[in-house]
Amino acid sequence: MNRRLVLSLGCVFLLLTFSLAWGAPVEIRILHVNDFHGFVDPHQPVGSGEVLGGVAYLAAEAERLRKEKPTLFLAAGDMIQGHNWANLTHGASVIALMHSLRFDAMVVGNHEFDFGQETLKARVSEARFPVLGANVEGLEVLRPYVLREIQRVRIAVIGVVTEETPISTHPKNVAGLSFTPPARTVEQILRELKGKADLFIVLSHLGHHEDRRLAEAVPGISVIVGGHSHTKVEKPVPIGKTLVVQAWEHGKALGVLDLTVDGSKIVAFEGKLAEIKPALGRRDEAVARIVEEYQQRMAAFLSERIGEAAVDLDGARVRQQETNLGNFIADVMRQAAGADATIINGGGIRTGIRKGEVRVRDVYAALPFDNYIVSVRLTGRQIREALEHGVSAVEEGGGRFPQVSGIAFTFTRSAPPGSRIREVRVGGRPLDPEREYAVATNDFVAAGGDGYRAFGEAVRASGDFAVVGGAMKGERLLYNDAGRWLRDVVIEEIRTRKALAPAVEGRIRELDPP
């Protein structure tokens, strides 16, 4: 009897041992954020009645969730650029913050390139976590992937960024780099890592639509943690055997994905967005101190009062329609350049300005990019082409959507892209396709940024076109002030006017709004 008992206990022990060693289901938690853009403080978005975000509250919630299960904390790009808090240190403040939050990995977003390659290299060298970019060729500081082991599960995290990066940052910021197709890159790495990992996570800055396409095109991906499109994906989206997630924007939500893994299979999952707001009551004081330290450094400069807004200045809908803030900025540019018209990309305006006192920080938040004003000689035909491009992705909220001055046009989204523009008037008169007009824009668009080929091709048609020290040169450039950032020109105009009350005037009319 004793012998049988000993043998039975021995068998149970061996079964437990083999079970623990060879694939008993385990639980893993993935926390994720994307498109943070340096929004550290709780804020009330224009049009919202609720205060959301606050990175100290996000940090406390992340720490609480991390204690419950073994966790991987990932950032899906566009972290170091956007808000004043990040921009005035060229992202160094965000890297310090991410150390405190104990991120495990980050993929570069297109806006990580906005301060130039040397600055990006500096930020990557400061990071105590891997910064990924498998499909970026020519920037050796970026790693293609990182391997982690959690609960005996071997996890590969592969980072990819949008191929459109060269047209969504200034061309000088990506000179010498190439961006290979993400699907091809991921397929290659999956083959390379076969047998070396159990789960394959793609940390993506492609946009939710492209993430879904990637999941359909490339079998073998376990999870795609996405960014770039600022999409509020409330629950994981299964595409075949791949789960696709994304956590909105600006630290207003923390993505939570819980996986039950058996060997190399996800046998169960549950995901959500944990909304972040001061009402949570829990705040990470160490993170709060980092926020305060950098706020004090920039406070004196940014707090100067420069004017008064009689109405809310709408920077939220600049990717889909005419807005009063878009009109004001475009008007300032046309006046400064002495141009016939202005066409700018709505995506260059990053946030609105609330009614009341206007301070330097408000303009810096709305216009965070280091862009300057240029004026380009375009034919009426090229203006129409530019406007067609501008409305070609209105359904997706593409950053190319135009804000204009001196121009009025109508369009219909029911027509195919490329044939949506109907009537165009410049200076109150019908557009003449053969006439040349002086069109103000920013140097980003003038160089072909956001896909504005009409500008890029016109500028490059200049026999003496060049970019020297970041300044554009060329005979078709009628005005070119590389010595002052656009935001500083806008600040001076507000100082002069004191009172602002721009309006929507019918410059852009959609004939078949949804």
End-to-end CA span: 80 Å
How many strands, what sense, and barrel or not for the largest sheet?
6 strands, mixed
The name of the CATH architecture of the largest domain is: 4-Layer Sandwich
Structural class: alpha/beta
Q: Kindly report the CATH topology of the largest domain.
A: Purple Acid Phosphatase, chain A, domain 2
What do the pLDDT scores average to? Answer: 91
- Name of the level-1 CATH class of the largest domain: Alpha Beta
Question: Strands of the largest sheet, in order across it?
Answer: 4-3-2-1-13-14
- CATH level-4 homologous superfamily of the largest domain: Metallo-dependent phosphatases
The strand count comes to 28
Uncertain regions spanning at least 5 consecutive residues: 9-22, 463-473
Tally of helical runs:
15
> Shape from CA axes?
globular
Which range does the strand content fall in? 25-35%
The whole-angstrom Rg is: 25 Å
| Helical percentage | 25-40%
The number of domains is 2
Written account of the structure:
- The protein has 514 residues and is α/β, with parallel strands linked by helices.
- The chain folds into 2 domains: 24-293, Purple Acid Phosphatase, chain A, domain 2; 306-510, 5'-nucleotidase,  domain 2.
- The protein has 15 helices and 28 strands.
- Strands 4-3-2-1-13-14 form a 6-stranded mixed sheet, covered by helices on one side.
- α4 (92-101) runs antiparallel to α9, α11 crosses α15 and α12 runs antiparallel to α14.
- The longest helix is centred in the N-terminal third of the chain and has 20 residues, at 2-21.
